[in-house]
Amino acid sequence: MLALQHPYVVVAPAETVHVEVWTGAGGGRPVAIVPGLFGGAFTFRKVVPLLAAQGFRPIVIEPLGTGLSSRPEKADYSLTAQSHRLAAVLDSLNAGPSLVLAHSLGAAMAFRLALDRPDLVRGIVSIEGGPTEDATTPTFRSAMRYLPWVKLLGGIKLVRSKVRGMLLDASGDRSWVTDGIVLAYTLGEARDFDATLKTFLAMSRAREPAKLVPRLGDIACPVTLMVGTAHHDGDVPPQEVALMTHALLSF
Questions:
Q1: What are 159-174's pLDDT values in tens digits?
Q2: In this structure, are residues 57 and 41 in contact, taking their beta carbons and an 8 Å threshold?
Q3: Which residues of 6-34 are buried (b: 16+ CB within 10 A; e: fewer)?
Q4: pTM for this one?
């Protein structure tokens, strides 16, 4: 029998990270799961039970500004800062070395976590996530120019429309993208829409303190990349795959 805990881990003043820890008889090997920008823990709703059935202990960590985590306007939303929060959560749970399963931008956080805290990362499985140097895509940053108009042009309905389009564009089989799925993917964003918009703007302005690419060769753990066949904004370009092939010790 699986048991789900919904703790909120305070990683800094005004910064609270939502974490879902699945436990069963005997615990299991920890798998830290890091969602991308949208969807949060809901993204892995079908993956978590499969991992638990294989003897793992899934720990879903929603990065600051995503899912049900807090959205402080003045926070540092760089990928480096997010990786530090991942470390704080794993330390608070005494998770020890974990396999990190990360989606999209979550993978860029996982790479930085492996560099800064190799003691916490046993290996990385990246789902369509490369060595990204920015917390948002160019398309996302361009969209932020219209932020003052979002509330006038439809508010959360407009965001949901964009998320629907993003999911459809990224899917080889589009039949799974229903109204209910889109609502679930944007549940956290809808809770406090004003805070969501301010967080989006802060993410688009975030800057990394150091480049990741020159340090890829220092990642000691094995990395596995999973990519789909439906090309879309934000997927892993061939040049990044080639870069990881040559730079990572075990890829």
A1: 888 889 888 988 888 9
A2: no
A3: eeebebeeebbbbbbbbbeeeebebbbbb
A4: 0.91
